[in-house]
Design a protein that fits this description.
The protein has 119 residues and is an all-alpha fold. The protein is 65% helix and 0% strand. It contains 6 helices and no strands.
Length: 119
């Protein structure tokens, strides 16, 4: 009986959306953005721009663009009728602490819009 209850609980548990298209509201969309920003910080090497070769820089920028899914976020934001002001307000709180994780020029530049949300 305990196993059945546990399985029912797991099957009914609300799963957290992990992709922009899965967001049910603007707050979830911002949270997905923060999770992706953390993923970018984990995966991108922390090199300074003056230390990186152009080919490696292009590869890094492409990787950031692939992870960031900007077009998907813009599409879902429009579908959910999220205003820019609402997204900035929610982002200001959600993205706190990210600046401490950015160690190189590349990731700081990537995170600049997140930091500006509170400005």
């Amino acid at each position: 009986m305990t196993v059945i209850i546990a399985l029912l609980t797991l099957s009914c548990a609300k799963t957290e959306p992990s992709k922009p298209g899965q967001a049910r509201n603007c707050e979830e969309l911002v949270q997905i953005g923060r999770n992706i920003a953390e993923l970018v910080l984990e995966e991108i090497e922390e090199k300074e721009l003056n230390e990186i070769q152009e080919r490696e820089l292009n590869k890094t920028i492409k990787r950031i663009e692939d992870l960031a899914q900007t077009k998907n976020f813009l599409t879902r934001s429009s579908e959910l009728n999220c205003s820019e002001e609402e997204l900035k307000r929610v982002a200001c709180l959600s993205y706190q602490g990210l600046s401490q994780k950015a160690r190189g020029d590349i990731t700081r530049e990537y995170l600049r819009p997140y930091f500006e949300a509170c400005g």
